[in-house]
Sequence to fold (225 residues):
Amino acid sequence: EAQVTQNPRYLITVTGKKLTVTCSQNMNHEYMSWYRQDPGLGLRQIYYSMNVEVTDKGDVPEGYKVSRKEKRNFPLILESPSPNQTSLYFCASRSGTSGYNEQFFGPGTRLTVL
Amino acid sequence: DAKTTQPPSMDCAEGRAANLPCNHSTISGNEYVYWYRQIHSQGPQYIIHGLKNNETNEMASLIITEDRKSSTLILPHATLRDTAVYYCIVRGAGSNYKLTFGKGTLLTVNP
Fold:
């Protein structure tokens, strides 16, 4: 089954404790992206990757890092989480061969930083 | 990418057609109209997209006006599982395939 998976689905942590949210897709997609969703602000893009070893900032990259060492994986790293990063996070992927293909989203990771 | 305007909420009776409108009066010639939906904090789900011709797939139909300034998503036989927030998004084929989600329309399908 074609899918985007994220782990963990739920995470409660404390300020300053480094964490990684994993994202993996099995569709051989070139493009992957991370969004966060907050009440009243909609989904906002954090980082994206056009292909392996190619990443770039989205609209709200501060406090986050990403890497793209393999085509299928695109982890989101919070090196020193703060309470304002409490949010619902979504990973997405799509084929990069055409400008108009649909994007596939993961199930989401609900992060709480205390 | 052009801005879109959608009603904040709509109701529909189960089994009836749900017609969700979207205004995008500043759309440019190479921009597509996309529809996604999000069911209660799950990941957004692609529904359909189109440029200027009407489109239909197994989930829905998309009707785009001739001047392309508005469109309507039609769910032909709404079910309770179609209760969700529906997002109308307009974008071109930029190098970053970012989707800009607005507030969307909360569609509630009632039994």
About this structure: The two ends of chain A are 36 Å apart (CA to CA).
